[in-house]
UniProtKB/TrEMBL annotation:
Protein name: fructose-bisphosphatase
Keyword Hydrolase tagged: yes
Enzyme class: hydrolase
Gene3D superfamilies, A to Z: 3.40.190.80, Fructose-1,6-Bisphosphatase, subunit A, domain 1
Gene source species: Populus alba x Populus x berolinensis
Gene Ontology, cellular component aspect: cytosol
Amino acid sequence: MQSSTIPTLPTSLFPQKILLFSSKTQSFPSKSSLLAQSCHLFRPKMASLSGFIVRSQTGTSSSGEKGFSTLSEYMGKGGIDVGDELVVLYDHIQYACKRIAALVASPFNSSLSKQSNFAGGDSGSGRDAPKPLDIVSNEIILSSLKNSGKVAVMASEEDDAPVWINDDGPFVVVTDPLDGSRNIDASIPTGTIFGIYRRLVELDHLPQEEKATLNSLQSGAKLVAAGYVLYSSATILCTSFGSGTHAFTLDHSTGDFIQTHIDIKIPPRGQIYSVNDARYFDWPEGLRQYIDTVRQGKGRYPKKYSARYICSLVADFHRTLLYGGVAMNPRDHLRLVYEANPLSFLVEQAGGRGSDGKSRILSMQPVKLHQRLPLFLGSLEDIKELESYGDVQQKVNPGYEV
Ligand SMILES: O=P(O)(O)OC[C@H]1O[C@](O)(COP(=O)(O)O)[C@@H](O)[C@@H]1O
Protein backbone atom coordinates (compact mmCIF):
# COMPACT_ATOMS: atom_id res chain seq x y z
CA MET A 1 0.00 0.00 0.00
CA GLN A 2 1.34 3.42 -0.91
CA SER A 3 2.03 5.62 2.06
CA SER A 4 0.07 8.81 2.52
CA THR A 5 1.66 12.21 2.01
CA ILE A 6 -0.90 14.45 3.66
CA PRO A 7 0.91 17.35 5.24
CA THR A 8 0.11 18.38 8.79
CA LEU A 9 -2.72 20.89 8.89
CA PRO A 10 -1.71 24.32 10.13
CA THR A 11 -3.33 24.74 13.52
CA SER A 12 -4.33 28.31 12.64
CA LEU A 13 -6.94 26.83 10.29
CA PHE A 14 -8.72 25.33 13.24
CA PRO A 15 -8.89 27.79 16.13
CA GLN A 16 -9.90 26.34 19.46
CA LYS A 17 -13.61 26.13 20.11
CA ILE A 18 -15.56 24.38 22.81
CA LEU A 19 -17.28 21.38 21.31
CA LEU A 20 -20.94 21.38 22.20
CA PHE A 21 -22.22 18.19 20.68
CA SER A 22 -21.63 14.53 21.18
CA SER A 23 -20.32 12.25 18.48
CA LYS A 24 -23.18 9.88 19.22
CA THR A 25 -26.21 12.14 18.99
CA GLN A 26 -28.33 12.37 15.86
CA SER A 27 -29.47 15.87 16.73
CA PHE A 28 -28.19 18.51 19.07
CA PRO A 29 -28.57 17.40 22.65
CA SER A 30 -30.63 18.79 25.47
CA LYS A 31 -29.06 20.82 28.32
CA SER A 32 -29.04 17.81 30.60
CA SER A 33 -27.33 15.57 28.09
CA LEU A 34 -24.79 18.32 27.44
CA LEU A 35 -24.02 18.30 31.13
CA ALA A 36 -23.68 14.54 31.14
CA GLN A 37 -21.33 14.68 28.16
CA SER A 38 -19.20 17.48 29.54
CA CYS A 39 -17.14 14.98 31.50
CA HIS A 40 -15.94 13.62 28.14
CA LEU A 41 -15.01 16.97 26.66
CA PHE A 42 -11.55 17.23 28.11
CA ARG A 43 -10.63 13.57 27.86
CA PRO A 44 -8.50 13.51 24.71
CA LYS A 45 -8.60 10.23 22.81
CA MET A 46 -5.88 9.24 20.34
CA ALA A 47 -6.50 6.85 17.51
CA SER A 48 -4.09 5.74 14.83
CA LEU A 49 -5.63 5.16 11.43
CA SER A 50 -3.78 4.24 8.28
CA GLY A 51 -0.75 6.14 9.42
CA PHE A 52 -2.71 9.15 10.63
CA ILE A 53 -2.98 10.24 14.19
CA VAL A 54 -6.29 11.83 14.99
CA ARG A 55 -7.16 13.50 18.24
CA SER A 56 -10.74 13.74 19.30
CA GLN A 57 -12.04 15.61 22.30
CA THR A 58 -15.38 13.87 22.22
CA GLY A 59 -16.15 10.79 24.23
CA THR A 60 -17.72 7.61 22.98
CA SER A 61 -21.22 6.49 23.78
CA SER A 62 -22.14 6.14 27.39
CA SER A 63 -24.89 3.70 26.44
CA GLY A 64 -22.42 0.87 26.02
CA GLU A 65 -22.99 0.37 22.29
CA LYS A 66 -20.02 0.67 19.98
CA GLY A 67 -19.39 4.28 19.02
CA PHE A 68 -17.16 6.06 16.52
CA SER A 69 -15.91 9.56 16.91
CA THR A 70 -14.46 10.52 13.57
CA LEU A 71 -15.18 9.69 9.96
CA SER A 72 -11.82 7.92 9.67
CA GLU A 73 -12.56 5.81 12.74
CA TYR A 74 -16.02 5.01 11.43
CA MET A 75 -14.56 3.81 8.11
CA GLY A 76 -11.60 1.97 9.62
CA LYS A 77 -10.98 -1.52 10.95
CA GLY A 78 -12.73 -0.88 14.25
CA GLY A 79 -15.70 0.55 12.35
CA ILE A 80 -17.44 -0.62 9.20
CA ASP A 81 -14.06 -1.48 7.63
CA VAL A 82 -14.40 -0.21 4.09
CA GLY A 83 -10.81 -1.22 3.36
CA ASP A 84 -7.52 0.61 3.77
CA GLU A 85 -7.50 1.99 0.24
CA LEU A 86 -10.81 3.80 0.63
CA VAL A 87 -9.82 5.06 4.09
CA VAL A 88 -6.68 6.62 2.61
CA LEU A 89 -8.66 8.16 -0.24
CA TYR A 90 -11.18 9.64 2.20
CA ASP A 91 -8.42 11.06 4.35
CA HIS A 92 -7.23 12.99 1.33
CA ILE A 93 -10.76 14.06 0.36
CA GLN A 94 -11.33 15.30 3.91
CA TYR A 95 -8.10 17.26 3.76
CA ALA A 96 -9.05 18.86 0.43
CA CYS A 97 -12.50 19.81 1.72
CA LYS A 98 -11.06 21.35 4.88
CA ARG A 99 -8.87 23.51 2.66
CA ILE A 100 -11.90 24.51 0.57
CA ALA A 101 -13.91 25.23 3.74
CA ALA A 102 -11.14 27.58 4.90
CA LEU A 103 -11.05 29.22 1.49
CA VAL A 104 -14.78 29.92 1.21
CA ALA A 105 -14.78 31.31 4.75
CA SER A 106 -11.86 33.62 4.03
CA PRO A 107 -12.22 37.39 3.68
CA PHE A 108 -10.22 37.12 0.47
CA ASN A 109 -12.62 34.82 -1.33
CA SER A 110 -14.72 37.69 -2.58
CA SER A 111 -11.92 39.08 -4.73
CA LEU A 112 -11.18 35.58 -6.00
CA SER A 113 -14.75 34.90 -7.03
CA LYS A 114 -15.12 38.30 -8.70
CA GLN A 115 -12.50 37.22 -11.19
CA SER A 116 -14.98 34.70 -12.55
CA ASN A 117 -17.09 37.60 -13.80
CA PHE A 118 -14.16 38.69 -15.89
CA ALA A 119 -13.20 35.28 -17.18
CA GLY A 120 -11.52 35.86 -20.51
CA GLY A 121 -11.50 39.61 -19.91
CA ASP A 122 -8.48 41.74 -19.13
CA SER A 123 -8.99 41.90 -15.39
CA GLY A 124 -8.84 38.15 -14.90
CA SER A 125 -6.43 37.03 -17.54
CA GLY A 126 -3.11 38.26 -16.10
CA ARG A 127 -0.62 35.55 -15.29
CA ASP A 128 -0.75 36.31 -11.57
CA ALA A 129 -4.44 37.21 -11.39
CA PRO A 130 -6.35 35.37 -8.66
CA LYS A 131 -8.37 32.41 -9.88
CA PRO A 132 -12.09 31.88 -9.35
CA LEU A 133 -12.92 29.78 -6.30
CA ASP A 134 -14.34 26.86 -8.25
CA ILE A 135 -11.10 26.59 -10.22
CA VAL A 136 -9.00 26.79 -7.04
CA SER A 137 -11.21 24.13 -5.44
CA ASN A 138 -10.75 21.91 -8.47
CA GLU A 139 -6.97 22.21 -8.16
CA ILE A 140 -7.13 21.44 -4.43
CA ILE A 141 -9.13 18.29 -5.02
CA LEU A 142 -6.97 17.14 -7.92
CA SER A 143 -3.80 17.57 -5.90
CA SER A 144 -5.25 15.62 -2.96
CA LEU A 145 -6.42 12.81 -5.22
CA LYS A 146 -2.97 12.64 -6.80
CA ASN A 147 -1.31 12.54 -3.37
CA SER A 148 -3.57 9.72 -2.25
CA GLY A 149 -2.09 7.34 -4.82
CA LYS A 150 -5.51 5.71 -4.94
CA VAL A 151 -7.13 7.36 -7.93
CA ALA A 152 -6.85 6.34 -11.57
CA VAL A 153 -8.96 9.13 -13.02
CA MET A 154 -10.80 12.25 -11.87
CA ALA A 155 -13.73 13.66 -13.84
CA SER A 156 -14.73 17.14 -12.76
CA GLU A 157 -17.28 19.74 -13.69
CA GLU A 158 -14.39 22.12 -14.14
CA ASP A 159 -12.50 20.08 -16.73
CA ASP A 160 -13.64 19.43 -20.29
CA ALA A 161 -12.28 15.89 -20.16
CA PRO A 162 -11.41 13.48 -17.34
CA VAL A 163 -7.84 13.71 -16.01
CA TRP A 164 -5.89 10.45 -15.95
CA ILE A 165 -3.85 10.30 -12.74
CA ASN A 166 -2.40 6.88 -11.97
CA ASP A 167 -2.52 3.56 -13.88
CA ASP A 168 -2.67 1.59 -10.63
CA GLY A 169 -5.21 3.72 -8.77
CA PRO A 170 -8.10 1.47 -7.72
CA PHE A 171 -10.71 4.25 -7.82
CA VAL A 172 -12.40 6.68 -10.18
CA VAL A 173 -13.59 9.98 -8.69
CA VAL A 174 -16.28 12.19 -10.23
CA THR A 175 -16.76 15.60 -8.66
CA ASP A 176 -18.29 19.03 -8.72
CA PRO A 177 -15.57 20.75 -6.64
CA LEU A 178 -17.56 23.84 -5.61
CA ASP A 179 -21.23 24.01 -6.46
CA GLY A 180 -23.22 27.18 -5.83
CA SER A 181 -20.16 29.42 -6.10
CA ARG A 182 -22.12 32.04 -8.05
CA ASN A 183 -23.61 33.06 -4.69
CA ILE A 184 -20.37 33.17 -2.80
CA ASP A 185 -20.18 36.96 -2.49
CA ALA A 186 -23.37 36.86 -0.41
CA SER A 187 -21.96 34.13 1.85
CA ILE A 188 -24.61 31.69 0.69
CA PRO A 189 -23.77 28.04 1.51
CA THR A 190 -21.81 26.15 -1.13
CA GLY A 191 -20.77 22.52 -1.47
CA THR A 192 -18.50 19.88 -2.94
CA ILE A 193 -20.09 16.76 -4.43
CA PHE A 194 -18.22 13.53 -5.18
CA GLY A 195 -18.81 9.97 -6.32
CA ILE A 196 -16.37 7.05 -6.21
CA TYR A 197 -16.26 4.04 -8.54
CA ARG A 198 -13.80 1.19 -8.93
CA ARG A 199 -11.43 1.44 -11.89
CA LEU A 200 -12.63 -0.89 -14.64
CA VAL A 201 -9.56 -3.11 -14.98
CA GLU A 202 -10.96 -4.72 -18.10
CA LEU A 203 -10.38 -1.37 -19.85
CA ASP A 204 -6.72 -1.08 -18.80
CA HIS A 205 -5.47 -1.98 -22.29
CA LEU A 206 -7.29 0.95 -23.96
CA PRO A 207 -5.65 4.28 -24.87
CA GLN A 208 -5.59 6.66 -21.89
CA GLU A 209 -8.19 9.10 -23.17
CA GLU A 210 -10.64 6.36 -24.00
CA LYS A 211 -10.34 4.50 -20.71
CA ALA A 212 -10.53 7.79 -18.79
CA THR A 213 -13.85 8.59 -20.42
CA LEU A 214 -15.36 5.11 -20.12
CA ASN A 215 -14.33 4.77 -16.47
CA SER A 216 -16.00 8.12 -15.74
CA LEU A 217 -19.25 7.20 -17.48
CA GLN A 218 -20.19 4.33 -15.17
CA SER A 219 -23.80 4.08 -14.15
CA GLY A 220 -24.70 5.40 -10.70
CA ALA A 221 -25.75 1.88 -9.72
CA LYS A 222 -22.04 1.02 -9.60
CA LEU A 223 -21.07 3.71 -7.09
CA VAL A 224 -18.90 2.37 -4.28
CA ALA A 225 -19.34 5.54 -2.24
CA ALA A 226 -20.57 9.09 -2.65
CA GLY A 227 -20.77 12.21 -0.58
CA TYR A 228 -21.01 15.94 -0.35
CA VAL A 229 -19.49 18.56 1.87
CA LEU A 230 -21.70 21.49 2.81
CA TYR A 231 -19.86 24.74 3.58
CA SER A 232 -22.33 26.63 5.71
CA SER A 233 -22.64 27.71 9.35
CA ALA A 234 -21.20 24.23 9.92
CA THR A 235 -19.04 22.24 7.53
CA ILE A 236 -20.75 18.89 7.12
CA LEU A 237 -19.49 15.85 5.23
CA CYS A 238 -22.35 13.53 4.41
CA THR A 239 -21.50 10.19 2.87
CA SER A 240 -22.60 6.66 2.10
CA PHE A 241 -20.66 3.49 1.38
CA GLY A 242 -23.80 1.64 0.33
CA SER A 243 -25.06 0.92 3.84
CA GLY A 244 -26.96 3.98 4.98
CA THR A 245 -26.24 7.69 4.81
CA HIS A 246 -24.26 9.36 7.60
CA ALA A 247 -23.07 12.88 8.27
CA PHE A 248 -19.97 14.14 10.05
CA THR A 249 -19.49 17.72 11.20
CA LEU A 250 -16.12 19.47 11.16
CA ASP A 251 -14.86 20.07 14.69
CA HIS A 252 -12.78 23.21 14.30
CA SER A 253 -10.90 22.50 17.52
CA THR A 254 -9.34 19.30 16.20
CA GLY A 255 -9.83 19.38 12.43
CA ASP A 256 -11.76 16.09 12.57
CA PHE A 257 -15.09 15.31 10.98
CA ILE A 258 -17.13 14.03 13.94
CA GLN A 259 -20.10 11.74 13.52
CA THR A 260 -23.24 13.80 14.13
CA HIS A 261 -26.02 12.25 12.01
CA ILE A 262 -26.09 8.47 12.07
CA ASP A 263 -28.10 6.50 9.54
CA ILE A 264 -30.13 9.43 8.24
CA LYS A 265 -33.66 8.48 7.19
CA ILE A 266 -35.37 10.99 4.98
CA PRO A 267 -39.01 11.29 6.11
CA PRO A 268 -41.18 9.29 3.66
CA ARG A 269 -43.22 12.45 3.19
CA GLY A 270 -42.19 16.07 3.68
CA GLN A 271 -44.00 19.37 3.56
CA ILE A 272 -41.46 21.44 1.64
CA TYR A 273 -40.85 21.88 -2.08
CA SER A 274 -37.65 23.46 -3.31
CA VAL A 275 -37.54 24.92 -6.82
CA ASN A 276 -36.81 28.16 -8.64
CA ASP A 277 -40.48 29.00 -9.15
CA ALA A 278 -39.78 32.23 -11.02
CA ARG A 279 -39.66 29.75 -13.92
CA TYR A 280 -43.32 28.84 -13.38
CA PHE A 281 -44.42 30.09 -16.81
CA ASP A 282 -41.74 27.99 -18.52
CA TRP A 283 -42.87 24.82 -16.74
CA PRO A 284 -44.99 22.13 -18.37
CA GLU A 285 -48.61 21.76 -17.30
CA GLY A 286 -47.95 18.70 -15.08
CA LEU A 287 -45.37 20.45 -12.95
CA ARG A 288 -47.53 23.56 -12.55
CA GLN A 289 -50.43 21.40 -11.46
CA TYR A 290 -48.30 19.51 -8.96
CA ILE A 291 -46.95 22.66 -7.35
CA ASP A 292 -50.37 24.37 -7.34
CA THR A 293 -51.84 21.28 -5.69
CA VAL A 294 -49.33 20.85 -2.87
CA ARG A 295 -49.27 24.60 -2.20
CA GLN A 296 -52.96 24.44 -1.47
CA GLY A 297 -52.73 21.30 0.65
CA LYS A 298 -54.82 19.36 -1.91
CA GLY A 299 -52.30 16.62 -2.70
CA ARG A 300 -52.08 13.07 -1.31
CA TYR A 301 -50.73 14.64 1.86
CA PRO A 302 -53.44 17.08 2.91
CA LYS A 303 -51.14 19.80 4.25
CA LYS A 304 -50.14 23.08 2.65
CA TYR A 305 -46.51 22.82 1.55
CA SER A 306 -43.91 25.52 2.16
CA ALA A 307 -41.30 26.70 -0.33
CA ARG A 308 -37.56 26.87 0.37
CA TYR A 309 -34.99 27.57 -2.33
CA ILE A 310 -31.41 28.60 -1.66
CA CYS A 311 -30.29 28.03 -5.28
CA SER A 312 -27.29 26.09 -4.05
CA LEU A 313 -27.73 22.41 -4.79
CA VAL A 314 -25.88 20.93 -1.82
CA ALA A 315 -27.65 23.21 0.65
CA ASP A 316 -31.09 22.56 -0.83
CA PHE A 317 -30.37 18.83 -0.90
CA HIS A 318 -29.04 18.72 2.67
CA ARG A 319 -32.18 20.39 4.03
CA THR A 320 -34.38 18.02 2.00
CA LEU A 321 -32.50 15.00 3.32
CA LEU A 322 -33.09 16.08 6.91
CA TYR A 323 -36.62 17.50 6.69
CA GLY A 324 -38.11 15.64 3.72
CA GLY A 325 -40.05 16.94 0.74
CA VAL A 326 -38.66 17.45 -2.74
CA ALA A 327 -35.74 19.45 -4.14
CA MET A 328 -35.91 19.90 -7.88
CA ASN A 329 -34.53 21.57 -10.93
CA PRO A 330 -36.94 20.61 -13.74
CA ARG A 331 -34.86 21.99 -16.63
CA ASP A 332 -31.84 20.34 -18.26
CA HIS A 333 -29.34 22.07 -16.01
CA LEU A 334 -27.76 19.80 -13.37
CA ARG A 335 -25.28 17.15 -14.37
CA LEU A 336 -25.90 13.40 -14.28
CA VAL A 337 -22.36 12.16 -13.64
CA TYR A 338 -21.12 14.29 -10.75
CA GLU A 339 -24.28 15.85 -9.31
CA ALA A 340 -27.38 13.70 -9.91
CA ASN A 341 -25.74 10.30 -9.43
CA PRO A 342 -23.91 10.95 -6.12
CA LEU A 343 -26.91 12.76 -4.61
CA SER A 344 -29.33 10.05 -5.79
CA PHE A 345 -27.10 7.42 -4.19
CA LEU A 346 -27.21 9.34 -0.89
CA VAL A 347 -30.96 9.94 -0.96
CA GLU A 348 -31.68 6.30 -1.85
CA GLN A 349 -29.45 5.11 0.96
CA ALA A 350 -31.56 7.32 3.24
CA GLY A 351 -34.80 5.77 1.93
CA GLY A 352 -35.71 8.42 -0.65
CA ARG A 353 -35.63 8.62 -4.44
CA GLY A 354 -33.69 10.39 -7.18
CA SER A 355 -35.56 10.81 -10.47
CA ASP A 356 -35.50 12.77 -13.72
CA GLY A 357 -39.26 13.06 -13.42
CA LYS A 358 -39.83 9.72 -15.14
CA SER A 359 -37.03 7.28 -14.35
CA ARG A 360 -34.68 6.37 -11.55
CA ILE A 361 -31.43 8.32 -11.88
CA LEU A 362 -29.17 5.48 -10.70
CA SER A 363 -30.42 3.19 -13.51
CA MET A 364 -29.34 5.57 -16.27
CA GLN A 365 -26.30 4.98 -18.45
CA PRO A 366 -24.41 8.26 -18.88
CA VAL A 367 -23.39 8.98 -22.47
CA LYS A 368 -21.49 12.25 -21.97
CA LEU A 369 -19.40 13.54 -19.11
CA HIS A 370 -21.23 16.85 -18.80
CA GLN A 371 -24.67 15.46 -19.61
CA ARG A 372 -27.48 17.57 -18.10
CA LEU A 373 -30.94 16.47 -17.06
CA PRO A 374 -34.00 17.48 -15.01
CA LEU A 375 -33.49 16.39 -11.40
CA PHE A 376 -35.95 15.59 -8.61
CA LEU A 377 -34.59 14.38 -5.26
CA GLY A 378 -36.46 13.74 -2.06
CA SER A 379 -38.95 11.77 0.00
CA LEU A 380 -40.22 8.58 -1.59
CA GLU A 381 -43.91 9.45 -1.42
CA ASP A 382 -43.41 13.02 -2.60
CA ILE A 383 -41.34 11.97 -5.61
CA LYS A 384 -43.83 9.24 -6.53
CA GLU A 385 -46.69 11.71 -6.34
CA LEU A 386 -44.78 14.21 -8.47
CA GLU A 387 -43.95 11.54 -11.09
CA SER A 388 -47.64 10.64 -11.28
CA TYR A 389 -48.27 14.03 -12.94
CA GLY A 390 -46.33 12.68 -15.94
CA ASP A 391 -45.39 15.93 -17.58
CA VAL A 392 -42.92 17.49 -15.12
CA GLN A 393 -39.73 18.00 -17.17
CA GLN A 394 -39.21 21.57 -18.37
CA LYS A 395 -38.52 21.41 -22.12
CA VAL A 396 -37.94 25.11 -22.76
CA ASN A 397 -34.61 26.32 -21.44
CA PRO A 398 -34.31 29.89 -22.65
CA GLY A 399 -31.26 30.74 -20.54
CA TYR A 400 -31.66 32.85 -17.44
CA GLU A 401 -29.43 35.73 -16.46
CA VAL A 402 -29.42 35.07 -12.72
O1 LIG B 1 -30.82 28.71 -12.13
P1 LIG B 1 -31.49 27.51 -11.54
O2 LIG B 1 -32.22 26.73 -12.59
O3 LIG B 1 -32.36 27.85 -10.38
O4 LIG B 1 -30.33 26.52 -11.08
C1 LIG B 1 -29.73 26.64 -9.82
C2 LIG B 1 -28.84 25.48 -9.61
O5 LIG B 1 -27.69 25.67 -10.39
C3 LIG B 1 -26.53 25.58 -9.58
O6 LIG B 1 -26.15 26.87 -9.22
C4 LIG B 1 -25.45 24.90 -10.35
O7 LIG B 1 -25.28 25.58 -11.57
P2 LIG B 1 -23.85 25.95 -12.07
O8 LIG B 1 -23.07 24.68 -12.08
O9 LIG B 1 -24.04 26.52 -13.45
O10 LIG B 1 -23.31 26.94 -11.09
C5 LIG B 1 -26.99 24.83 -8.34
O11 LIG B 1 -26.21 25.06 -7.21
C6 LIG B 1 -28.40 25.31 -8.19
O12 LIG B 1 -29.17 24.34 -7.56
